[in-house]
């Protein structure tokens, strides 16, 4: 019989970060993934730690700020376990605002920061915000997991779970496992089995591309508007490229890349930085963001299943929120007070009609 203290479904950045935190606390952990670890949204992301993004829902800020406070220690622990350093690529973001405000940068200030920017009708402010390469982060997380006794089970789909007294029976394609507690971290694939019946997590498709930054353009920071971002890679094997994204589509689990959508993203980027118009295209791809109706994650116990928890629905901020999610979920699973109030993220929360419409 397979038995662990904790079984986790989903080996993305959320599931594996939680596994490492639980292991650090002395618990035995088994992690299942229906395919390969870190093969979905975790490595499709751009890597912005965008706590100040004005498109984020306001209640997300306390979780985002907690995560930022934990991030340096999180990366240091990954380095210690994996031997892989995960550097930050940028430390500032030019953020477009809907209208001018007291912190809007003048044209002269913009010219000093990024001389080749053509702001058009955008009003920009400067944010202190880091970015990293999610593929680099994924390599470090996976190597850190493999350096521990965490039992990682790829190509193993969780079919169903059943709470029995003080344990959970986990039925998978590779057999039955038992654990004291179970956590659903399957992102866009999170099902109703561990969620309140009235809630849902749905995939929201994002197409994006990578281009080679022209030698004539110095791009030391992120540029972000409401519908587009440009994220440079400034170090490591991907130095000299920039990520341009991303569409937001309700397309189910379709990950087909459409040339017209990629061309539109390129046009938006080139409108701000004309030097990108003819930049060589290096790669295109699409990822599936796990979205909830109010764009806040579900973090907490399943309302209907004893000893089962949900940690999913991080939408566009899985990379940002991984350290805080691991921290508070491990506290909750260990029956400790959580660092912040998690009521806004409860799987049992009432979703208003306005949130569902949004």
Automatic annotation (TrEMBL):
GO terms for cellular component: cytoplasm. One of its GO terms (molecular function) is oxidoreductase activity. InterPro entries: FAD-dep_OxRdtase, FAD/NAD-bd_sf. Keywords: Oxidoreductase. Residues 5-332 form the FAD dependent oxidoreductase domain. The keyword Lyase does not apply. The keyword Transport does not apply. SUPFAM superfamilies: FAD-linked reductases, C-terminal domain, FAD/NAD(P)-binding domain. It holds the Pfam family DAO. It comes from the Bacteria. Gene3D superfamilies: D-Amino Acid Oxidase, subunit A, domain 2, FAD/NAD(P)-binding domain. This is D-amino-acid oxidase.
């Amino acid at each position: 019989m397979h038995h662990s203290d904790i079984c986790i479904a989903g080996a993305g950045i959320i599931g594996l970060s939680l596994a490492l935190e639980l292991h650090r606390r002395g618990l035995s952990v088994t992690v299942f993934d229906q395919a390969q670890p870190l093969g979905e949204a975790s490595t499709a992301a751009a890597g912005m730690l965008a706590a100040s993004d004005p498109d984020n829902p306001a209640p997300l800020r306390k979780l985002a700020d907690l995560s930022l406070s934990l991030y340096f220690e999180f990366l240091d622990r990954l380095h210690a376990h994996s031997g892989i350093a995960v550097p930050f690529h940028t430390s500032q973001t030019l953020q477009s605002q809907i209208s001018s405000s007291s912190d809007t940068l003048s044209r002269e200030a913009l010219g000093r920061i990024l001389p080749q920017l053509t702001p058009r009708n955008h009003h920009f402010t400067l944010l202190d915000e880091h970015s990293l390469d999610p593929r680099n982060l994924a390599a470090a997380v996976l190597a850190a997991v493999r350096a521990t006794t965490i039992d990682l089970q790829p190509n193993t789909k969780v079919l169903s779970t059943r709470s029995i007294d003080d344990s959970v029976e986990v039925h998978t394609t590779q057999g039955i496992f038992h654990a004291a507690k179970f956590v659903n971290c399957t992102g866009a694939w999170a099902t109703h089995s561990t969620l309140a019946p009235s809630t849902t997590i749905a995939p929201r498709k994002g197409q994006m591309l990578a281009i080679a930054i022209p030698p004539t353009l110095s791009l030391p920071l992120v540029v972000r508007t409401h519908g587009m971002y440009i994220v440079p890679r400034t170090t490591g094997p991907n130095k000299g490229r920039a990520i341009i994204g991303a569409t937001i589509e309700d397309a189910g689990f379709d990950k087909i890349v459409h040339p017209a959508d990629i061309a539109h993203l390129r046009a938006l980027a080139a409108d701000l930085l004309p030097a990108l118009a003819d930049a060589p295209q290096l790669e295109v791809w699409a990822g599936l963001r796990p979205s909830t109706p109010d764009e806040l994650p579900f973090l907490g116990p399943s309302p209907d299943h004893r000893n089962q928890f949900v940690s999913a629905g991080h939408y566009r901020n899985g990379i940002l929120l991984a350290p805080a999610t691991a921290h508070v979920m491990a506290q909750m699973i260990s029956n400790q007070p959580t660092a912040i109030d998690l009521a806004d993220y409860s799987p049992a929360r009432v979703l208003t009609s306005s949130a569902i419409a949004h």
